[in-house]
Amino acid sequence: MTDLVTHRLGHVSLTPDGPVVAGSMNEWTLTYTVGSYGIDEGGTLKLARRFASDGAHPQFDEPTAPNYTTVTTTGEAKLRPRYDPKAHVRPWMKCLVIDVYDGCLAPGDTVTITLGDRSQGSPGIRAQSFIESAHELRFLVDPTNACLVERLPSSPVLAIISGAPLSVVVIVPTQVVVGEQAQIFVKGEDRWGNPTPAPDPVELSWDGDGEVQINAGVLRCATSCSGRVVARWHDQTFVSNPITATQTPPQHRKYWGDLHAQSDATVGTGTEVEYFEFGRDWAHLDVMCHQGNDFQMTDEDWRRLNEVVRRFHQDGRFVVFPGYEWSANTAAGGDRNVMYLEEGMPIMRSSHWQIPGTPEDQHTPAHPADVLFSKLREHVDLDKVVLAAHCGGRYADIREYFDEELGPLIEVMSCWGVFEWLLWDAFDKGYEVGVVANSDGHKGRPGAEGPGAGQFGIFGGLTCMLAESLTRAAVFNALKQRRCYGTTGPRMDLNFEVEGRVMGSSFAVDRDRVQVTASVVGVGPIESLQLFRGRELIHEVRPAAFTNCGASRRIRLVWGGARIRGRGRRATWDGVVEIEGAHIERAQVFAFDSPMDGIQAQTDTTIELRSRTTGDLDGLDIWLDQAQRGRVVFRSGVGELAAMLGTLDANGQSASFGGLDLRASICRYPESPSERALEFTHEVELAASATTPLFVKAVQVDGHTAWSSPIYLRRC
């Protein structure tokens, strides 16, 4: 029997309705049959997608161009289609809106929407770039011109699946003990970073020192050693993250996690079960937390999440913490990630904005941030909660609201961008904080989140926690003690000590100079290992190739930064690179995130670029026929920079363009840097009266970065 809503409002069908490959071009036909109410003049139809979806926007004016969409009806009314990215309630915000005018639609009339109409030459419309087991095209109807729409129960649902693998990902533990067996995890990834089973055949081998056996996907080190696993697939080579084997277990082992992303419980994609399954089985994480926006989570949502967390957590194998994102407007403190040691703790929301039916009580809401801090102190054991300051759509205003004991962590990067300035804020205020990096992924791929074609600017990060064991208690204590570091995604092996104390330490010394040691082993070649005193760069080591590259024909351009701190931080760098007096033999971008960006056109003297940054860096390497005479010019919508090739060295030239560290540089670069490890020992002078924060930053040749948590020193 037809349900009453369908009888009155109508029903909709989709052709074809089978699985679709992520990011592919398609044509879909939705047929809406009007229900018994009819659609009055001034009524509205909406085809809504979730906030996270990055499927192409429909366009209605160019029949031969991509994403062309047509809307027709058998009824007497006229229809006006338009696209509006904020036409409905979060998370169903992105809408194709159809206004009904100059007449009405009668019961039984049909409206046909052809997405990617190919009849006049359009190649179709691009599907969203990421997988989703149940991708809904939500159809909403307002039959009365009341500006109140209701969802049709027949709204189509289809699966978005991975495409063919184009690359291979290999993941191994960062540390093992001699004699231990270590699993080698291998998967494929398609063009958009969606996972596939490991393609066949993949051959695995060892690249490093020591005696190492690889058999049936398991690695065993017979002696102390370090190196990486190499995967060969057809004519391509892929490498794992670095792995080190020692005779005795280290005091602190390195465990990798994504502590911050969302599912469809709020504004993300997929269920909580799919969320944790992906992180455990496809991203191969050790540690996870779920961070749904508090103002969307009902009490039932919070209860269900806690049950799922309890089901997935397993000490010794997969550590999972319950948590939520306290998501106040920046003026009230901005985003904070709340993580609990165990289930059954209270959710303290910034507001009940999208859940007005959820009752308020002594715990919730907690608004602004100082009230959150106060209520946590009143109702929660402080040993069982830790907060991290986050910059999403809203940025954490830690200058105005901060509690160092409750929230000693700063998230320096996520898919929203890179936020080193949040660390500078902490230094300016004298806070002692640790560094984390996560994804805040909304695409259902925690631990392996890419930007796709949507509004998130960059790949998601990872946090490495230095803990005694893979248990809730040990990992949580590591976060509370700031024994952690963040990366832009690669599992770089970073070490940093001052006078033998590990990152995150805070202690007093009775002298004015201290010894700092640091090392890094990259997933790829390393460009630099830097030591900072506060925000001041005081020491840097680079491979020898950078001091002897005067004859190199490789020129590197780098640009990045953000416009502002807030939601509209993205900077658009679309522009051109021009070479005068030389010719381009080869050009290659690096640190770009989306396949939609990069080189758009190229001649032997010019390169046209599409680039966006949100605090991160994008870059371009150019190999010239000669690089001793002539000039290189970079012109973009943000600014312009030029350099003479005859005087260009590895230090290069740079320019600042305002905003939030908007900048660009041009330098001479080694032809083929290959060193994957750097280290240094350096003495640092301390301030006489103030606390001195020291931290290190490592940068790979491909632009990927790692930041240690600072070590804080006081003179006594």
Report on the structure:
It is a single chain. This protein has six helices and 59 strands. The chain has 716 residues and is mainly beta. The protein has five domains: 158 residues, Immunoglobulin-like; 80 residues, Immunoglobulin-like (Sandwich), CATH 2.60.40; 237 residues, TIM Barrel; 82 residues, Immunoglobulin-like, CATH 2.60.40; 126 residues, Sandwich (Immunoglobulin-like). Strands 26, 27, 29, 36, 37, 40, 42, 43, 57, 58 and 59 form an eleven-stranded mixed β-sheet that branches. Strands 28, 30, 31, 32, 33, 34 and 35 form a seven-stranded mixed β-sheet that branches. Helix 2 runs parallel beside helix 3. It holds the Pfam family DUF3604. This is DUF3604 domain-containing protein.
CATH secondary-structure class of the largest domain = Alpha Beta
User: Can you tell me the CATH superfamily of the largest domain?
Assistant: Metal-dependent hydrolases
Radius of gyration in whole Å, from Cα? 27 Å
Helix-strand makeup class? mainly beta
Uncertain regions: pLDDT < 50 for 5+ in a row?
Answer: none
* Helix count from the secondary structure assignment: 6
Number of domains: 5
